[in-house]
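Here we describe the complex-level prediction in full. Unlike the single-chain runs in Section 2.1, the two entities below were treated as one system.
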Amino acid sequence: MIKIQNLHAEIDGNDILKGIDLKIDPGKVHAIMGPNGSGKSTLSYVLAGREEYDVTQGDILFNGESILEMAPEERAAAGLFLAFQYPVEIPGVQMTTFLKTALNAVRTERGEDELDAIDFLKLMKKTCADLGINDEMMKRAVNSGFSGGEKKRNEVLQMAMLQPKFAVLDETDSGLDIDALKIVADGVNKLRAEDRSFLVITHYQRLLDYIEPDVVHVLADGKIIKTGGPELAKELEAKGYGDILKDAA
Amino acid sequence: MQLDQLPTPKSERWKFTNLPSALKKLEISPAALGWGGDVALLNKDAPGAAQYQDTQLWDLNSEHTQDIKFISADETLEISAQDGQWLSPRIIVHVKSGEELTLIENQSGQGAYWKNQVVQIVLEPNAKLNHYRFIGETEKGVFTTFTHIKIARDARYEALNVISGAGLVRNQIYADIDGENADCTLNGVNLLSGTQHADTTITIEHQAPHCISNQVYKNVVTDSARGVFQGKVHVHRPAQKTDGYQLSNTLLLSDLAEMDTKPELEIYADDVKCSHGATTGQLDEDPLFYLRARGIPENTARALLIEAFLGEALERVSDETIQTRAREIISDWLKEHA
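The structure predicted for the assembly as a whole is:
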């Protein structure tokens, strides 16, 4: 599904990613854990195609094809999705307009017919209902004045509408209390499927109690220094990052 | 035409707009729209003569006008110049006590021309005027318009000015609020591209207590176009409890685009609420990336964000068909320029 090979990336001349190798098979959930400043968010931005970051070496293959030259919207159409750590507030753009524009742009790129207003609304209402989201939220401007929990639920809603093949969740747990976390994790779990992979980026093990990963990686100073099963996350939680970083050094 | 009768950038209120230089390039001669009208009825006294000394265009209009229109009921005016014309339309609006009317101006032209327009408006107590102006001039068209509004007690003036085409535009608005509880709401959308130049210069004289003035101007400037916004709120000593608000936000879409903004508050009353905000910047990268990451192509994403930015200038427009028309103009403009 996704193959990251010796990925190096920098921003403003600072090396952040220093050789990442990672392969995720269809249907699998991988977690990346790491201390602050290890490059977690950079990795998510580089995957989604943010232009401020320069990839200096290596490649990202999505279903066997390099996506490095693709614009963010082309990656989204190809089936990549980034759930933002900090979803952006966009006053003046209504949720419904935003979702309909996004969905139809992606459908067009995928060679599917655009949805008309009625079919779109039906799908939106159904998706909201499935995820336990009040569709009154759809009348508001994108993320404007949303609570932390609403913003993260909105990310999951967008994911459910766009039906990606590969989703990156960037610190989806940050700023959430336990109830909100459960709702968001529940939404993600509903989307788990044999042909859909996830990369869950987090600082804390907590989220992984609710979204159980198949593989856990530890990222430090721009490199993956350790890979293991779900038990690795528990070990990190118990011991903190200190020991593992020391072992790796 | 005598160029020496024209205001030049040497005068403070014309610092950013060089009218003589724009007119020098035109071959024009006095012409008429065919409205007719009796020149003897004109009020020739230009407002602000003593204080601002910015009355040359008003005087020139008084001297040359052959087109006088009296408005006392709803009306849509098509004001279109032909190539080579120098027009001096004069529009006189009188709204009687307790009445409401809507005046729509569609400003356009062909080739190179100069329209030097004056609009004189009197609102009697508790009257309301909705005044909507759509400016779509040619790239060699020069349009100067001086609107004076006298607003009495409990009267309301609501305006929307949309500029989507210009060679050079000077949109000068002068509101005298001289009765209590009056409201003057000015909204503007300026969409400038190519080498267009549009200057909005506003003076609001708060002479009476408990009045409200609102100015919300949104500008998008691209290519090597240039926008100017000068807004002055002058609160005289008797005008206690004035609520004055002025906003001018500009998005620059190219490196050569330029915006000059000069907000001014002059306040002599001691119990007022006045504020202004002026920003000039580029489209934010964060929302743009967010939209693109959801599959929305860059041009569409930019257009969505610019429409959202401009939307605030339409919120206070009470006529929905006018809002819709403005949105269509914006959307057409963005197809070409976003």
